[in-house]
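Technical appendix A lists one of the benchmark inputs used to test multi-chain prediction within the project. The record comprises two sequence entries:
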Amino acid sequence: MASQTLYDKLWAAHLVKERDDGTALIYIDRQLVHEVTSPQAFEGLRLAGRQPWRVSANIATPDHNVPTVLAERSAGVSGIQDEISRIQVQTLDDNCDEFGITEFSINDERQGIVHVVGPEQGATLPGMTVVCGDSHTATHGALGALAHGIGTSEVEHVLATQCLIQKKSKNMLVRIDGKLGAGVTAKDVVLAVIGKIGTAGGTGYAIEFGGQVIRDMSMEGRMTICNMAIEAGARVGMVAVDETTINYVKGRPFAPNEQEWEQAVSYWQTLHSDPDAHFDAVVELDGSSIEPQVTWGTSPEMVAAVGAVVPAPNDFSDPVKRSACERALTYMGLSAGQAITDITLDRVFIGSCTNSRIEDLREAAAVVKGKKVAESLKEALVVPGSGLVKKQAEAEGLDKIFTEAGLQWREPGCSMCLAMNADKLGAGEHCASTSNRNFEGRQGFGGRTHLVSPAMAAAAAIAGHFVDVREWI
Amino acid sequence: MKAFTQLDGLAAPMDRANVDTDMIIPKQFLKSIKRSGFGPNLFDELRYLDEGRPGEDCSQRPINPEFPLNHARYQGASVLLARENFGCGSSREHAPWALEDYGFRCVIAPSFADIFFNNCFKNGILPIVLPADVVENLFSEMYSSEGYRLLVDLPAQTITTPAGDVINFDVDAFRKHCLINGLDDIGLTLQDADAIRDFEKNWQQKSPWLFREHRA
């Protein structure tokens, strides 16, 4: 058989049927469901009188709308103050009850952001096809799965048929070799990749991330990188299976049991691109030259090293980029030539499906330990990605480190990443955020988001402005 | 789904690159559990001067006089001219729902984000990719002539300008078929139920761990 990429293998393994018109029917092993993009899909099933094809393939948890303040959270769904948020979370509970779908509901300790919960439970596994009505589903590709976001019509389609109608993407390899410097993390790597190929650079491709930097990286770091594939335009981000992957999966609640383990592992060990596999595009970065990154604009591609200055529109020869820069500087209230480290902050957010796993919290805690949040800051939030991450962090005493430094320790959820709950930016406020999108208004009407790593966000919380975290370690 | 065959529609501009789905429909409106009623909040943060709240009467809100869709000449538009990477960002289908509810049935741009592009076809909206210079030309013709309409013919895969110029476009055969006939693709997929069952049986033998029942 001809050499295959990881994506080619996963695609071929799930191909139900190729149609004459170039589309294909692809089998879906796992669907993750949350409250925002599923109500209309369940309603569609009801209207058509359809039942889920394979109920146990679906797992649900509410994340986007849930409050993160303990007082509001402790009363469960009925305690959610925002009425329409409450109805949406209640609707998820009702739909899961009606159709018999396993749900980690609001105050279950396994509840959390879908993209944290899936891998944590072993509910997303190497070799699976994974979908969710959320563009950050590429996160699960870190396990060597074929994972991508879908719209609500497709959520309904997967519920009803366990399949998706797809066209195969092209293959892109993003290879990051070398060794990351101290204080440089997965988030900096993926922001540097997006800065290099642009926010549409991966459109039409499935990206495989490889190279020494990725091989040396933890699963948490790989998830951070795959999570933001969509910010480079690619629906799919993936990493080959290796010992790190297999060790991560072992023993998780939904992972294969002892009888099935060896069989599963021997299959998973085939989940890598063949040495001479063909990629339609190859992008290379030198990991040792990547510096801590900070976004200055309103698209993730508008990113610079922390030691750099905010660019000027004339720095861009492409007229589209030039006018986008001009507009972004106006929205962000920044001037060309201003040092990134001179950007003062109003709020700091550590959380989101990009950076709310235990390793992210350890990284941030190490920076703030024994220090105090800048007085000029209005608020600094730490929002763990799941109830289990929260529990683990508390067992390690990270919550104390955060609260003693003046950061707030919250309940798990998506929180200020997209501000569907009460956690949001005010107009004009600058936020150092470990989330994934710096779009206009993303974190609140008129809010100004700067995407950074957890360590960089933590350092910014202490200083009140951006600092190069490498100087602190 | 509404069928799409021919559309003779007034064109309106969304003249910036990388229009993201947060811009098309901000997150506070995603709390709705319905799939209709998003039109008044399409491009909410650009269209109005205040912060929009779900369920409010938008006719009482201060509008942004600089935003083209608020201009008299573009009222009733059903064809949106857009720039590179339109619809980037989240997978929210609320974005095409909002466009459709507002009255847009066709979006023309040099490129689209993948998920948004796919979501359009599920909702009776035709997204058309044309070369950047052709889109640029449509923009300048539209700006220079009020009441600029485009005749979009999906079966023929053509766009005809007021001057009678005919532009051909590509569209995936399956998506074209579904759009012209207003077909629900779940019904089409279920015609292959036997193939799905066969695949599933075989896959379960190879990967039994994927089929174990778990209960919370």
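The longest strand of chain A covers residues 170-177. The mean pLDDT of chain A is 97. Comparable benchmark entries are summarised in Table A2.
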